[in-house]
Amino acid sequence: MARSSVSLDQLRDYVYCSMLYYWKDVVGIRGEKAPRTTLELASESVRQAWRIYADRPDTRMAEAVMMVWRTWLAREGVDGDDVLKGLAGYAQAMASILQGFESGRVRKADGSRYKQPRMSRQFTKIARSSGVPALAGELDRKLLPALRAVKVDHPLFGPYSVADAFTDSLRMAERLGTPAEAPQREAILAVEAKVQVRVGGWVLPAVADMLVIDDAGETPPSVFVEVHDYEFGSAPLARTVGRDLRLIAAVHMEPLEGGNLSFGAVSGVTYRHIRSGWTHRRRMAPGGRLTHVLEAALRGIQEGVYVPMFLTDLSRCETCLMKTPCFNPGGLDALEALAPGLASRAQAVGESVRVVAAGLSAGERKQLFGVLRRLAEELASRDGLTSDLPGAVAVMGRALQPVGA
Ligand code: SF4
Q: How many CA atoms are closer than 13 Å to the CA of 51, on its beta-carbon side?
């Protein structure tokens, strides 16, 4: 189905894996119906903390994150102080274990350092002996039902508890809290601002993670758009960040028509990798070849072009929420996975032909079929014949034949 608008989140899904977009936004298997995962708790608490950070002049990001967790617990009637003490104890114990690895005090048998301490046996051994897994289990029993969250595996180091989410949210906040990294609070114009992106005849509803005033002397002020990336692992290379379609879309952002928020030109984009605290700021102008890539992705969405990631790279599929429909345990539906939508489109065409044919006389059916055949020949002579059109014409022809002819 042709679409005239698409959100930035949908665009990101489409570029990540077009099948992910297909299942979520075409078939309608909505992620939000699923309960929150423990992995989402960490990033969600930091997202919410940005608002508090922007609104309260004396609040550090780590304090803002604590306030978010306290609010969540209070809303669910959990004894906040007691539980927060447990969570803070877990975070402290984890920090001190990790500190041993990061300082080089704990090393491999050959004397080298661990690159991913949390994935090592040594880490598991030390953590067990200090009792942190037992504490995490105890907190999970209380907090998973209260927060309506499900425990999932971290893509790098396995089972991920609520206490791990709390610990990571604090670590992220601390990395963002250093003066060099934090955006100037007084310059923040809006957090999670509803905006629109105008590109190539498309208008996309989008959310700007943050708008930071660049030149307050202009009316309305020009802004830098912040793109907040909560992806796991280390920060991307600076030279690849500029190719992120979210950054390209960001320079095409403008205030929502009829909305309350007003800002002028977008002077550039600040990319923020939240888990590492790494930022990359660049002045950018609309236009350029990557704008065409953005338009090509939008065209792909409009034309229903889907290429499953599992054909080339299974690693993304392992942690994908849409693993179940893609790898249907009852047997992969080849039509749906490799040509998504074809099964339902074929059914719709068959049904339409039946309806049209029912109202036609034998002479009209013959005439219509003749016109269709001529149309296919004409398209073929102009290189405009799609490979499945002859098949479709044959199906129409059969359906238009009088019964028994
Ligand atoms: S399981 Fe793989 S192919 Fe399917 S939507 Fe997820 S990433 Fe794409």
A: 9
